[in-house]
Amino acid sequence: MFPLCVIKSMWPFAPKKQELSVSFLSLMPHLEDMYPIVPSKEVTLPWIKEAELEADKYKNVYNHGRIHGGAHKCSGIIGLHHKGWIIQSWHDFVIETNGDGESFISYLPSSAPNDIVRTGAVGHFAPAKFGSLPSTSLPANTLRGIVKLHTPWAFRITPGWGLMMLPVEYIKEHRFTSAIGVIDPRFSQQLNPILYWHVLSGSTLVKAGTPLCRLIPVPINDRWTTTVRQATKKEYDFYYDRQKLTSLFWSRPHGVIGRLYNKVMGSN
Fold first, then answer.
1. What three-state secondary structure class fits 46?
2. Which contiguous run of DSSP H or E holds residue 149?
3. Are 208 and 35 in contact (CB under 8 A)?
């Protein structure tokens, strides 16, 4: 008689932990060396260092019973910054707008980018294709014509997964904002940033190496069981006790709180 644990490991249909992987494929020689797709956490956020220096000034100063923390310790901001990858511009380009709020002209250093991607390095979606989207769902200083950048990047990813394209938040970039959407590799493998343009009149140079958008892996066709209910006593006690526990420290110890969560609330 085999122990249960042995039988479970021998059972041929036991679910295996899925190994997750993604490959970014350069369709242009040496692009992966010049302007690679990089982990998001490698993009410098200058204000983080500034926030650290500012917080150091107040490290021994009370603030309503809590030490001055700083946004550089925000788990939400840092957690996002450490997720996914960043697509950089792979060439210089200029977008010129004339104040009509709709049209733009693009300029390239040479014909090389167009020759490499063949479909044209800088394309667009006419306002008619999006109806009132740019004018009703985006800031007022948004061009109604939408910029599409074709790149020599494609990707492969673990079956059942795709990539969500998002703006690169918390950086000093006000000229454009990446559109948000999910790239399903069953239908598209090209990585082409789509930008809402915010300079309505003038000529704007975007240099090679400029961060354009963020990519985060997401499951495709995932099925969640959703429950909306009253918290149990265990859940209520945990969230109430957590608030008391965090008041024991001047600076919130995320590692300690995380381990406590895993111990008490480890399963749904």
1. helix
2. strand 146-149
3. yes
d(CA 231, CA 242): 15
Cβ contact 124:104 at 8 Å: yes
- Report d(CA 63, CA 59) in Å as an integer: 10
Which residue's entry shows tokens 């249960």?
4
Per-residue exposure over 8-32, b if at least 16 CB sit within 10 Å of its own CB, e if not = eeeeeeeeeeeeeebebebebeebe
Is the separation of the CB atoms in 94 and 206 below 8 Å? yes
Domains within the chain, CATH numbers bracketed: 20-223 (2.70.40.10), 225-268 (no CATH)
> Which residues does residue 6 pair with via DSSP β-bridges, in sequence order?
none
Which residues contact residue 52 at a Cβ distance below 8 angstroms, ignoring those fewer than 6 apart? Answer: 70, 72
Is the CB of residue 81 less than 8 Å from the CB of residue 41?
Answer: yes
CB 212 within 8 A of CB 168: yes
pLDDT by residue (tens digit) across 46-81? Answer: 777 777 777 766 665 555 444 545 677 777 788 888
Render pLDDT for 195-219 as a digit per residue (tens, 0 to 9).
999 999 999 999 999 999 999 999 9
Residue 163 contacts residue 210 (beta carbons within 8 Å): no
The answer to whether 109 touches 91, Cβ cutoff 8 Å, is: yes
140-145: Cβ within 8 A, 24+ apart = 141/198, 141/199, 141/200, 142/177, 142/196, 142/197, 142/198, 143/97, 143/101, 143/102, 143/104, 143/196, 143/197, 143/198, 143/199, 143/200, 144/101, 144/102, 145/102, 145/103, 145/104, 145/197
Place of tokens 């511009």: 89
